[in-house]
Design brief:
The chain is an alpha/beta fold. It is built from 12 helices and 12 strands. It is about 45% helix and about 15% strand. The strands form 2 sheets. A 6-stranded parallel beta sheet has the order 2-1-3-4-5-11, with helices on both faces. It has a 6-stranded mixed beta sheet with strand order 7-6-8-9-10-12, with helices on both faces. Pfam families: Peripla_BP_4 (PF13407).
Length: about 375
């Protein structure tokens, strides 16, 4: 009975924590609104304009600076492709600044964008303690800013994320169910990144929720060869635990970690060990669908769709329209057991995962006309 009461208490705390995050987002988003419209949902908050006339500020080519913390892996490359695609459709120009995981360099790039008097700035990842002073300068200079997966909290700056708490919980819940709430697992994780630290909050609660699931190893680092480094570390761990049943599953809350773990497990012939990840790209999807792949589940958003959404919010800001200060993108659970036997791409995923890559947030009626006006 004591354990039951403790479990109920833990679940209540986690529920209140996640609910608090959601309520805070709603409150901040409403605070960030201007004008008289009072949208009834987060999705409606991002659709403020009712006019299909192209705003005057957008009748000239828009210059956008996209400042990224890193460009590791296929998720990042597909995200950047989404940014470029949407800016180009709107007739604008985008300059990508990759900071190679150097936060000081990232802040410097924001300063460069301000000095170049760009029309808008996109920020991908980064930490507030490094970026806030530069971002405040941009806001003071009248340059709209939209950030992705960042802990920035500056009035007027829209911050979008992938709802990292839901991402982590969906994959972890699947893991627990598949191993019947009991077994040894490996956790691949690295600190220093806002989304990773949010996912870790749920992981720590998960361990208390499932006391018979034991973490026997934890490792991980972010580098230019993260997947390869992870593969080497996982190979060493498999030698340490050579028997079937020593390891039930791996939780890898970044697709680069999941790729490395999956390849190590495949090469060792230990496919009884299942991998549960976060994030998805075309490369990841092919790896999941490979015969006898241990990568079983991932929870993700479409990275290209994230990039397109971020650009739409930025153009709304440039047009003078209201945007939410905080917006969470709805993630989707992708289970390889529900996918067809033939290999599919991300473009086909919507046929099997309802709602995949179909976000209509951040749209205004004039966007269609702007795209038409800039068709080449």
């Amino acid at each position: 009975m004591k354990h039951l009461k403790a479990l109920i208490g833990l679940l209540l705390i986690v529920s209140l924590f996640v609910a608090g995050c959601t309520n805070e987002q709603d409150r901040v988003a409403q605070k960030g609104q201007t004008g008289t419209n009072k949208p009834s949902s987060q999705e409606n908050q991002a659709q403020a304009s009712t006019s299909d006339e192209i705003p005057a500020k957008l009748k000239k080519p828009i210059k956008v600076a996209a400042v990224t913390q890193f460009s590791i892996g296929t998720f990042s490359s597909q995200y950047i492709s989404g940014v470029k695609e949407q800016v180009e459709k709107f007739g604008g120009q985008v300059q990508i600044y990759n900071a190679d995981n150097d936060l000081a360099k990232m802040a410097s790039y924001v300063e460069t964008a301000i000095n170049q008097k760009v029309d808008g700035i996109l920020i991908d990842h980064g930490k507030a303690d490094a970026l806030a002073p530069s971002v405040r300068k941009a806001v003071a200079a009248g340059i709209p800013v939209v950030a992705f997966d960042s802990d920035l909290d500056i009035p007027g700056v829209t911050v979008i994320d992938q709802d990292d708490y839901t991402l982590a919980w969906n994959s972890l819940r699947s893991l627990a169910q598949d191993i019947n709430g009991k077994g040894n697992i490996v956790y691949i994780w690295v600190a220093g990144f806002t989304p990773m630290e949010r996912r870790n909050v749920i992981y720590e609660a998960f361990k208390k929720r499932y006391p018979n699931i034991k973490e026997i190893a934890r490792f991980g680092n972010a580098s230019s060869n993260t997947a390869l480094d992870t593969q080497s570390q996982m190979e060493a761990l498999l030698k340490k635990y050579p028997k079937k049943g020593d390891i039930a599953a791996v939780f890898a809350p970044w697709d680069e970690f999941a790729k490395g773990a999956t390849r190590a497990i495949q090469q060792a012939g230990r496919t009884e060990i299942k991998v549960y990840g976060i994030d998805l790209s075309d490369e990841d999807l092919q790896l999941m669908q490979a015969q006898n792949s241990p990568w079983t589940v991932t929870t993700a958003t479409d990275p290209a769709d994230v990039g397109r959404l971020q650009v739409r919010f930025l153009y709304q800001k440039i047009a003078g329209e209201p945007t939410p200060q905080v917006y969470s993108i709805q993630p989707h659970l992708v289970d390889k057991r529900t996918l067809p036997k033939q290999t599919i791409s991300m473009k086909d995923l919507g046929k099997y995962v309802p709602g995949w890559g179909q976000s209509q947030a951040g749209t205004s009626p004039w966007m269609k006309k702007l795209i038409e006006a800039n068709k080449k």
